[in-house]
C-alpha cells in the first residue's frame, strides 16, 4: 500500500504537488499542516504527550492535535477530523492564522510546514486515542510558557515556537 499523500506548497501556501508523508519529512519538503489549540472556559490549554511510538517527537508535550491534510482535503475539515481521532472531541474551530516554520525533529526528519492553526473552546470529557496520545492535561498559560522556557526538551519543536504566538493565550473568536 502506498504512503499517505500530503500537500506540498510554495511559500505562499499554494499547492505545488503531493508527496508521501514520511518522504516529505525525510527530504525537508515544504508542506501544509494543521494544528489545533483547545482551551477551556477557565483559559487553560489542553496539551497532550505524544505516544512513545510516534515517528517523530515521541513522548514530547504538544497542543491538542496536529496533522497534515490529505491530498484534496480542506484544512478545516482535517483539523476537525484529527481532533476527533486523537482526543475524541468535537467542537467548533476558528481559524487563527498561518504559521510557517522549519525544525529538525530527530531521526533524520524535518518539519518544513505552513501550519493552518485553529483554536476552540471546549468544556467536556476528553477521550484520547492511546495509539496517538500517552497523556493529556489542562494547563494554565503562564506556567506552561514558563515550563516551555525552562524545560524545552519536554516539548515538541513547533509547540515551543507557538508559545510566542498571540493565539497561544486563548481561542480566536470567529468573526
Task: Using brief descriptors, characterize the structure shown.
175 residues; 4-stranded mixed sheet; alpha+beta; 3-stranded antiparallel sheet; 20% helix; globular
What is the helix fraction of residues, given as a range?
10-25%
The gyration radius over C-alpha positions equals 15 Å
Please mark out the parts with pLDDT under 50 across 5 or more consecutive residues, or reply none. none
Number of strands: 9
Structural class: alpha+beta
Q: How much is the average pLDDT?
A: 93
Number of helices: 4
Order of helices and strands, N to C?
EEHEEEEHEEEHH
The biggest beta sheet reads:
4 strands, mixed
Shape: globular
Explain this structure:
The protein is α+β, with helices and mostly antiparallel strands and 175 residues long. The chain has helices at 21-26, 75-87, 141-150, 157-162; strands spanning 5-9, 15-20, 31-39, 45-50, 61-63, 65-67, 94-106, 109-121, 133-139. The strands form 3 sheets. It has a 4-stranded mixed beta sheet with strand order 6-3-8-7. Strands 5-4-9 form a 3-stranded antiparallel beta sheet. The protein is globular, with a radius of gyration of 15 Å.
Amino acid at each position: 500500500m502506498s504512503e499517505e499523500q500530503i500537500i506540498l506548497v510554495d511559500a505562499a501556501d499554494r499547492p505545488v504537488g503531493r508527496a508521501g508523508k514520511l518522504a516529505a519529512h525525510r527530504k525537508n519538503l515544504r508542506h501544509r499542516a494543521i494544528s489545533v489549540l483547545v482551551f477551556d472556559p477557565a483559559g487553560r490549554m489542553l496539551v497532550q504527550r505524544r505516544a512513545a511510538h510516534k515517528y517523530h517527537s515521541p513522548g514530547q508535550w504538544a497542543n491538542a492535535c496536529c496533522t497534515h491534510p490529505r491530498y484534496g482535503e480542506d484544512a478545516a475539515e482535517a483539523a476537525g477530523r484529527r481532533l476527533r481521532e486523537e482526543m475524541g472531541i468535537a467542537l467548533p474551530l476558528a481559524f487563527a492564522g498561518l504559521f510557517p516554520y522549519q525544525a529538525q525533529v530527530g531521526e533524520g526528519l524535518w518539519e518544513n510546514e505552513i501550519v493552518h492553526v485553529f483554536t476552540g473552546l471546549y468544556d467536556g470529557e476528553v477521550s484520547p486515542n492511546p495509539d496517538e496520545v500517552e497523556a493529556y492535561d489542562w494547563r494554565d498559560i503562564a506556567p506552561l510558557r514558563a515550563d516551555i522556557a525552562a524545560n524545552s526538551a519536554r516539548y515538541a519543536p513547533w509547540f515551543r515556537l507557538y508559545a510566542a504566538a498571540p493565539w497561544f493565550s486563548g481561542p480566536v473568536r470567529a468573526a
